[in-house]
Amino acid sequence: MRIVSLLPSTTEILFAVGAGDDVVGVTFECDHPAEARTRTIVSTTAMPEGLSPAEIDAHVAAALARGEDLYRLDAGALAGLDADLVVTQDLCAVCAVDVTVVDDALAHLGCTAEVLTFDPHTVEEVLASITTLGASVGRAAAAEELVASLRARLASVTADVRRRAGARPRVAVLEWTDPPYAPGHWLPEMVELAGGEAVLGAAGEKSFRVRWEDVAAARPDVVVVAPCGYGRDGAQAQADALVAAGLLPDGVVVHAVDADGMWARPGPRIVDGVEELAQVLAGTSAGVTPRTAPTAG
Length: 297
Fold this sequence. Notes:
Largest sheet: 6 strands, mixed
CATH topology of the largest domain: Rossmann fold
Strand content: 15-25%
Shape: globular
Low-confidence stretches: 288-297
Order of helices and strands: EHEEHEHEHEHHEEEHEEHEHEHH
CATH superfamily of the largest domain: Nitrogenase molybdenum iron protein domain
Mean pLDDT: 88
Number of strands: 13
Helix content: 40-55%
Strand order of the largest sheet: 4-3-2-1-5-6
């Protein structure tokens, strides 16, 4: 089978279940595992480089208002790969090539590749997508084994959370920082699994814009800075800027995460994100500020 993956998450899943050798095309964002970078890149961003978070937000809003695509699909590269299966999404126009663009391109090329779309909104749906994709590429047993291992790790976190004393720390996740956005989809669920109380956003719903007054009114004990598309270094830089600007409540624990790899990307590493946050919240519950988290004020 020759597979083109138009999502970093599905690329990750395909390699994790042993189908990496079948992947012939990926996106410019497919960076895990490192071997994925050796495949042909068939989609790129239409966004200029070097924009600040505020400029990115403005660019995205303007492009969507004009009905413009944020990603470019290289039909020529796609045609040359002779794909049997194309994996894409119907979740968020800001995240990747939309399925309608893929369908149009394949129709134009006369390509008969099967198109498989993913639209997870919850942790359970993320895990289910691993099973579905594995079965679709003949790796059902490996996918089921991977999901079983991820469930076991989540169960271990849940058991640790149950042994903690005291109330759950109040946690506000920022899916974007300028302007601030409350999280949706599986992110609030990750907070709950890690032993926190998610005070911004709603599990299974879309993210939405908030004001800094809303963040303060939520009375968080911990603010998780998880700007979509940014790795840990980029998230840390934004966290530091928020603290320096005095935009967060005094005394709150601020923790920057690898948002791109462990939070925004609906793949196996969201479990890594839950485990990491669980450690941070365990220290917070005990009255200890984690070393990795600067404190505002």
